[in-house]
Write a structure and sequence with these properties.
globular; 6 helices; 0% strand; homotetramer; mainly alpha
C-alpha cells in the first residue's frame, strides 16, 4: 500500500495522458478534455464547493466516521480534477509536488519533519 | 529529489501537525487554525479561484513559461491549504491518497499505468 | 422598461415561490428545490466561477461587446440562482435589497447618489 | 422604504462610479479598483463561499433568525461585490436587471407574477 500511495499521483498522471487519445463518448476524462478548459475549471470549482460543504458537515458532527470519509472523498475529487486540469495544460502533478518540496523540503521544514 | 517528491505530502502533514502547538502570532498555519474552519475554507476557495484565473491566463498564452509556473504555484497553494483543512479536522493527505489508490490502483487503471 | 427593471427581482421572487408547487420533471427551478440545498449551492458556485471566467475574458478584450454581454449574462445567472437559494430558505431578494439600503441608504451615500 | 429598495442597486452603481475618483487609502472600493480585477474576483468568490457556508448553517437550524439574517447579509455582500466588478468593467447593475427582465419579463413569467 505504501508504494501505491507514494506513486498514485504519478500513476494518475499516466492515466490522464492515456485518456487524451481515447473516445469522449466512453471516457469521462476524455469528455472533459473535449469540452475544454472552462468545463474542467467548473468541475474543479464544483469539487471545491463540495469540499467546503463536507467540511461544514464534519464541523457539525466531528466524530462522524461517515462525515470524515465524505470530506476525504471530496478532497480526492478536488485533487483528481486539478490533475485533469494540469494534464489538459500538458503539466503534471510532479511539478506541483516539486513546488511544494521547494517550499517545505530539504533545508526547511520537511527536513525537520523527516526527523 | 524523487524521494523528496514522493514524501513531500507526508512531510507537510507532519509540519501541519507540529503547527498545532505553535503560536498564532508567529506561525501562519497556527493563525489559520486559531481563526477556525471558515477561515480555512475561505483560503481553500481563494486558492481555487486563483487556480481558475491562472488557468485562464495560461489559455491565453499556452507557451508562456511564466503562466505555466503560475498555474503550478496556485495548484500547490490549493493542495497545501486542503492539507491544512485536513489537519484541522485531524485527517491527513495519506487518507486522500489511499482513496485515490482505491479508485485507480491495483486492479484498475493504475496497474495499467504502471506497465 | 424602467418599471420592469425596478420590479424584476420582486417578480422573480414571485415566480420562484410559484415553482414550489410545480413538477420537478417539467420545471428547472422545481427540480433544483427537489435536489436540495447542496445542489442549489453548487449551481450558485458554478455561476460564480462562470462570472470569474467571463471577467477574465473581458479583461483580455475590454472593448468586446460580446464579452461585456457575456459577463452581464453570467452575473444575471448568479443573481438568479442566489434568488433560488433565498426562496429555498423561504427568504426573498427584498430582504437583501433592504440590507443594502440599510448600508447605503438614506443618511448615507444613497442619498447623495439620489441627487 | 419601497422606493429606496427599488432604487438601491441603482444608487449603489452611482456610489461605485463616484469611488473611481477617490483615494485608495481612504475608500475600500477605491482600494479594490486599484488592486485590480483579480482582487475583485477573489472578493466575489469569497462572498460566494461565505454564502455557501451561511446556507449550510441555516440548514442546520432553519428557524434561527440569526442564521437567516446571516445568509441575507452574505448575499448582500455577494451582490455588492458583483456590482463593484461590473463598475470596474464600466458596466452596471441595470444591464443585469434588463437581462433578467428579458428572460422573465413581459410576455413571460413576470407578467404572470404581476397578477
Amino acid at each position: 500500500m505504501e508504494n501505491d500511495t507514494n506513486n498514485i499521483l504519478k500513476a494518475i498522471d499516466v492515466i490522464l495522458n492515456d485518456r487524451k487519445s481515447e473516445d469522449a463518448d466512453t471516457s469521462y476524462v476524455a469528455s472533459l478534455y473535449q469540452q475544454g478548459t472552462e468545463k474542467i475549471l467548473k468541475k474543479v470549482s464544483e469539487e471545491c464547493t463540495e469540499t467546503v460543504m463536507a467540511s461544514k458537515d464534519l464541523c457539525k458532527e466531528p466524530n462522524s466516521k461517515t462525515n470524515q470519509e465524505h470530506l476525504i472523498y471530496e478532497v480526492a475529487d478536488l485533487w483528481f480534477h486539478t490533475q485533469v486540469l494540469l494534464a489538459h495544460h500538458n503539466l503534471s502533478s510532479q511539478a506541483v509536488l516539486q513546488e511544494l518540496a521547494r517550499r517545505f523540503g530539504q533545508s526547511g521544514h520537511a527536513e525537520k519533519a523527516n526527523r
